[in-house]
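Record 1 of the preview.
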Amino acid sequence: MKFGILSQYPKVYSTNTLVQACLKNKIAFEILNYNKTDISFENGVPFVYHLGKKISDVDAIIPRIASSATHLGARLIRQFSILGIPSTIDAVPLTKVRDKLVVHQLLINEGIPMPNTYFPVEESDPDVWGYKPGNYPMIVKMLHGNRGAGVILAESQAALKSVLDAFQRLKEPVIVQEFIKEAKGRDIRAFVVNGEIVAAMERCAKSNDFRSNLHQGGHAVPIELTDLEKDLILRTAQICELDVTGIDLLRSEKGPLILEVNGSPGLEGIETVSGIDVAGKIIQYLEEKVHRLKGNTL
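->
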């Protein structure tokens, strides 16, 4: 059996730990730089090429797609799917979860609790909003941002207008959310593989920041989830059609709130903090999926 790891950076932790998991589970692998991977249709037959070489011996793929390459990644995943090659994430769920507004619409429609949110269209003026998601301060997030980038705390109406104006000039859509003060700069990242929560950690913001993301200097500790939190996380993964995902949750006075859903979550933080071989669980799940689709038994 052979897996293709779609990754632009073979030396980053997440890619390398997947490579080590393949070796440990005796799975052959090939790292495919998705920026150097082409697709073709030859007399009605689809193919995939990497660096000019036709890919014909891969049994499944593990996409590690950057946000900036979402649509490119989705095209490649769809091409592999046409060829009968399964993935840890399908093309449609990938594009959906990369848009925070779409995720909010999907989850709210299914009764999943989330922070109050406002999506201002271009040139929207807070002075005439019919609704505000909370009292100041409020959170402004880029619609397609990740790792805490493009997240700003607006302390006042004037600050909010200034932040929105800056994003509007950049033609960058945003959402505005209530600030959950009682969370005290903490949130929870839970990692789901094949319908099971395999690891969880509480992330804490550094003292002069409100963002808990590890990439923004926060730190993390292992955490035990409540039954309600587990149920919300697994329902969220199911609604978003994700077999492998990292889901972020806040503890609030209203109860647990789903914050974000990640289709290509990083592995370094969760493995380091929890001590759990999450990459190994991904590889084992994918191996089982391939055998199941082929009608084999392990």
